[in-house]
Amino acid sequence: MAPIVKVEDLTKRYESGFTALEGVDLEIEEGEIIALLGPNGAGKTTLISTICGITMPTSGSVSVGGYDTVRDFRKARQMIGLVPQEISLEPFEKVVATVNFSRGLFGMSPNRGFVDDLLRKLSLIDKRDTKVKELSGGMRRRVLIAKALAHEPRVLFLDEPTAGVDVELRKDMWDIVAELKAQGVTIILTTHYIEEAEAIADRIAVIDKGRILLVENKADLMTRLGAKELRIELAEPVDAIPDSLAREGLELAPDGRALIYIYDTRSERTGITRLLADLQAAGLQLADLQTKQSSLEEIFVGLVHQADAAPAKEPAA
């Protein structure tokens, strides 16, 4: 099956000479949730804007549902819903009118039942006839989502959708995302809350300095790059690691009450059995053992640091 979004060798270079995107290749499958992660200025919003046809590419191509976003802009854009970072709504318009207007912009006929059901799912039904200016910031963000879904798109872009909202509203939004996925909607999100990407995304794409560093299944990525940490709590604190354990690659906790051992889950042997035997031979008594898997945030930070340390490529002519 062809991907619903296909980005090929996409470059965006401004007149100033700044290159926001360079040689980006990305394929997104129908019905998946993909999290686009990257530091500020990495190119996330530019990539989304270009796929949505808001920003014109310098070179390369983008297609959505088989429609080229330049040659077949209207057909491609019809398939896309976009929830931008910034809240930009007509303050004196009522919620329902705002959503209906967005539906009409895409040539969709009025459908009160669909719109009311959408408002109900977003906990906006009781605000149906309320003016936007009277809503809280979190409710306005819900209206943005309703606007993006008003024309029944098959691809939904969420650009920092939970920025500045409270924990309860954030949880509600991810419940909505899960329901949309169940309906077959493809979702691409950017977020600074990496734990959210870890919780709901099927795949992770990491972008930095306008280049895609990787695109990988979340579980595979965490298995491949995620190390495990074994924390060995000692019955009595020590001032230093015994010389006989120097080869083990241990670190001593600042308070001297624990030893930290990092191991690769992919290795045939973790070395833990030998380590425990060597600890006993060194006369160290154990009080407790704890293990911790690397989080997606730690993996992401490591990838970006590796990319920053790599030699810069010469800009294309």
From TrEMBL:
Entry keyword annotation includes Mitochondrion: no
Name of the protein described by the UniProt record: ABC transporter, ATP-binding protein
Pfam family membership, one: ABC_tran
Superkingdom assignment: Bacteria
Gene3D superfamilies: P-loop containing nucleotide triphosphate hydrolases
Domain (ABC transporter): residue spans on this chain: 5-234
Biological classification of the source: Bacteria, Pseudomonadati, Pseudomonadota, Alphaproteobacteria, Rhodobacterales
Organism: Oceanicola granulosus (strain ATCC BAA-861 / DSM 15982 / KCTC 12143 / HTCC2516)
GO MF terms held by the record: ATP binding; ATP hydrolysis activity
Matching PANTHER family: ABC TRANSPORTER ATP-BINDING PROTEIN (PTHR42711)
CDD domains linked: ABC_DR_subfamily_A (cd03230)
Keywords in alphabetical order: ATP-binding, Nucleotide-binding, Transport
InterPro entries listed in its UniProt record: AAA+_ATPase, ABC_transporter-like_ATP-bd, ABC_transporter-like_CS, ABC_transporter_ATP-binding, P-loop_NTPase
